[in-house]
Amino acid sequence: MSAAPPLCLGPLPIVAASHFPIPRGACDTHAHVVASDNPAYPLVPERSYTPPPASEASYLAMLNATGMTRGVLVQISVHGTDNRYLLEVLRRHPQRLRGVGVVDPSVSDLELEAMHAAGVRGLRINVLFGGGIGFDAMEPLAHRCAELGWHMQFLLDARQLPDLLPRMRRLPVTGVIDHMGHMPVADGTDSPGFQALRHLVRDHGWWVKLSGAYRISERYDDFDDVTPWARALIDAAPDRMLWGSDWPHVHIPRMVNTGRLRNQLADWAPDAELRQRILVSNPERLYGFAAS
Predict the structure, then answer these.
(1) Predicted confidence (pLDDT) per residue in 156-186, tens digit
(2) 73 strand-pairing partners
(3) Model pTM?
(4) What region holds the Amidohydrolase-related domain (predicted)?
(5) Topology of domain 34-287, per CATH?
């Protein structure tokens, strides 16, 4: 018998205070809700980890504590293609929340239309954790996204990008890369992976989530080695950068403080007008929020 998926730590109950004024309309573009305590929403057996519950109420409390007016929920891999809990939360907060779903290419038009009505604005490819949908589905799902005006989101290791560029450049929709490429910043901004990521952002209109610094850094818990990496991405396309907390911070060995992660943005984007774009105007455009 295979070993049970490892248990995750829960998020810290305290959120550090902000080091900069949070603008009205600010959006956390990457977080998850998890119904692991409810057998009505089973976890997929092929998952890579087992997270504690991350309820709708806890998620909204985190948004409030970090000063976020809006949020984007991303379907977590442990729920596979069962988007029901995500959609229920989205439907209860149509002005405040948007979502990114996970579906199989055989999904019906009716289901996608219902997801759109609930607030979903993209589909996720995830090749790093069990329960995700992989690259084989990329082209067929991209065409389904194009019909709805959606984007595609990618959880991958950017060291995979050089080989994937020919396929990605042909996609009929824009792409969003999770967690600044989810590769070690120790590889450097001259590495082929980072250069491929920068090429997609600068030359092909792709977006990047400035999130998950703790997943690519070797310096717990200030993660200051990520600053040059984040600044290089921002310099490449400031109008296609997004910020996300990655709450509840699953599958990591030491828990991080969500407020301290938000405060990194003051170092990555010292100018208030630039932070306004990253936190407010950029997510308004991508996710279809009403202008604040």
Answers:
(1) 999 999 999 999 999 999 999 999 999 999 9
(2) 31, 99
(3) 0.98
(4) 27-289
(5) TIM Barrel (3.20.20)
